[in-house]
Amino acid sequence: MVLVEVILLSYLVVAAVTVCAMKSLLASVIIFASYGIAMTVIWVLLAAPDLAITEAAVGTGISSILFFVVAKRIRAMEEESREEKELKKNAG
After folding, report:
1. Is the pTM of this model over 0.85?
2. Residue 92 confidence (pLDDT) above 70
């Protein structure tokens, strides 16, 4: 059991660093969601089911959905900005 906890805790550290280092926003969100799933498993192993349920619902579920929505809007804003630049370039 200790080995599983060590592996999961090591994964949490690697995932946290990877999320910060990734250049792709979508990849960062996916890794962050897997971080939440690993954290949920750790809470279950630590016999804290209330925290595990909360982490699964909020940390993995709601946060990931919000991050995906924000990533989609950022992509839409970037495309809109490119279109405006092209229009200005063609008009001027």
Report:
1. no
2. no
